[in-house]
UniProtKB/TrEMBL annotation:
Species: Adiantum capillus-veneris (Maidenhair fern)
Keywords assigned by UniProt, alphabetized: Transferase
PANTHER family: FATTY ALCOHOL:CAFFEOYL-COA ACYLTRANSFERASE (PTHR31642:SF310), TRICHOTHECENE 3-O-ACETYLTRANSFERASE (PTHR31642)
Family recorded in the similarity comment: Belongs to the plant acyltransferase family.
Entries under Gene3D superfamilies matching the protein: Chloramphenicol acetyltransferase-like domain (3.30.559.10)
Name of the featured protein: Uncharacterized protein
Length: 468
């Protein structure tokens, strides 16, 4: 693959020299980079799992795989770059840099117009030569931008990379600091970028109010609930410490597909025969099933006592759980994490509906009063400048029901929205299936051995549609 030199795309008009975006306490806790990639095919009915070479064989990139001139009569990279410049008139902080306000010991964004990093690339292969793009693997990681910064300059907050393929398809990858955009905000950012590229202008007005003001604690802050937001290990012998498991933690990413009917059946199976257990969502049922599968695979492949706990961290969208509620175009983090804990023995022996009940109790606690108490709790303590998750947790992230598939640059909707494999370790991701399977979901998890994978799949066997 051949990449052009990165450039910094800047807003069309300079920002005021004193312009600063204040970050919320929630933003502070998510000071790390995350990525997402959208694949666009020149064929309207591309099969995601098909490959010209059979058996999902992947054609590796190397220095000879490049193409000049570009296949498209329209220069996709140029269109996206011009749209990005126009977009930055509405998102000026995206072209800024994170800055530590030492007088307040708080992170903020200086709107200094240093620019959003943009890279255009060309691969002398077909999109289908990548193999199954729904499965994260190192070749796809090459399609994500590498953050570039010089010693005297802080790294950009946002970076984009457009990669063209011989078939006329292309990939658009976004890497951003989570302190600036969460998954919902990133999807709206790309949605507006595509709308401008089509010539339709901004479609969802971004709400760029001071996040510090929007997520304001009470004065004085008065927490009224207990908030173990960053739960510390009470005793090393009490929790599964993922860092103490085999050192080769970067195993193969396993992708498990659940079609819409399988998810519906899973939900029905959880509910059946329990008159006092009224309802649950497909999302809650799937988290419970995957949590149980992970516990079984650990307990039976590692020398771990069954009393050891395996907490799971679940993101909660609080956009509708605040007073007043956050707008659809709010630019910033509108998620909090709840931690649900259970022992390996509990997870292996309890029926799914009782595990779902544990998850529901944690999720239903997020009332407007609870969220306000959380903001007050963060204000009372020292807000971390960088989030360091406890290694004993099984982290979970979700991109389902986010509007990434509405991101149409004028050449059709993306066939798939994926993630880099380097982002997967010790985490569970749930994503929309994409394409004709958009109503189904994909789960991504890293498993280190064939035995671990076999035991993991035994728990899921009745509901799995496709796996690799």
């Amino acid at each position: 693959m051949r990449l052009e030199a990165p450039i910094m795309v800047k807003p069309p008009e300079p920002s005021p020299s004193t312009a600063v975006l204040e970050l919320s306490n929630l933003d502070h806790m998510l000071n790390f980079y995350c990525s997402v990639i959208l694949f666009y095919s020149s064929e309207p009915h591309t099969q995601l799992h098909a490959t010209r070479h059979g058996n999902n064989k992947v054609i590796p990139f190397n220095d000879t795989h490049y193409i000049h001139p570009r296949v498209h009569t329209t220069d996709v990279g140029l269109v996206v770059k011009c749209a990005l410049q126009e977009l930055l008139a509405h998102y000026p902080a995206a072209a800024g840099r994170l800055h530590l306000n030492t007088s307040q010991n708080r992170l903020e964004v200086e709107c200094n117009d240093h620019g959003v990093q943009f890279v255009s690339g060309h691969a002398n292969i077909l999109l289908s030569d990548l193999g199954d793009v729904t499965l994260a693997h190192p070749n796809i990681d090459l399609l994500f931008p590498t953050i570039v910064s010089h010693e005297e300059e802080r790294p950009p907050i946002v970076a984009l990379q457009v990669t063209m393929f011989n078939c006329g398809g292309f990939a658009l990858a976004l890497t951003n600091n989570h302190a600036y955009l969460d998954g919902h905000s990133a999807a709206i950012f790309l949605h507006n970028l595509a709308s401008i590229a089509r010539g339709d202008g901004i479609s969802i007005s971004p709400d760029t109010i001071s996040r510090r003001e929007r997520m304001k604690p009470q004065s004085p802050p008065i927490p009224t609930f207990h908030h173990p937001l960053i739960m510390k290990k009470k005793d090393d012998a009490t929790y599964v410490d993922m860092t103490l498991l085999p050192t080769e933690r970067y195993g193969t990413v396993t992708r498990i597909s659940f079609c819409a009917n399988a998810l519906k059946r899973l939900r029905s199976d959880v509910l059946i025969g329990h008159t006092y257990f009224k309802d649950c969502s497909r999302y809650q049922a799937l988290i419970a099933l995957l949590w149980k599968a992970r516990a079984r695979s650990l307990l039976q492949t590692q020398e771990i006592p069954n009393c050891i706990e395996l907490p799971i961290r679940i993101p909660v969208n609080i956009r509708g759980r605040m007073m007043p509620t956050l707008t659809h175009g709010y630019v910033g983090n509108g998620i909090l994490c709840t931690i649900v804990s259970a022992s390996l023995q509990e997870l292996c022996e309890l029926p799914l509906y009782l595990i779902v009940l544990k998850i529901q109790r944690a999720l239903f606690a997020f009332t407007p009063e609870f969220v306000q108490s959380m903001l007050d709790h963060l204000e009372c303590g020292e807000v971390p400048l960088e989030f360091c998750p406890d290694p004993s947790f099984f982290g979970m992230s979700s991109l389902v029901n986010l509007p990434f598939y509405d991101t149409n640059f004028g050449w059709g909707s993306p066939i798939y929205c994926g993630l880099p494999s380097r982002q997967m370790n010790n985490r569970l991701y749930i994503l929309d299936g994409g394409g004709q399977a958009h109503q189904g979901w994909n789960a991504m998890v890293v498993l280190e051995s064939n035995m671990e994978r076999q035991i993991f799949f035994e728990t899921l066997a009745d509901y799995v549609t496709f796996s690799t």
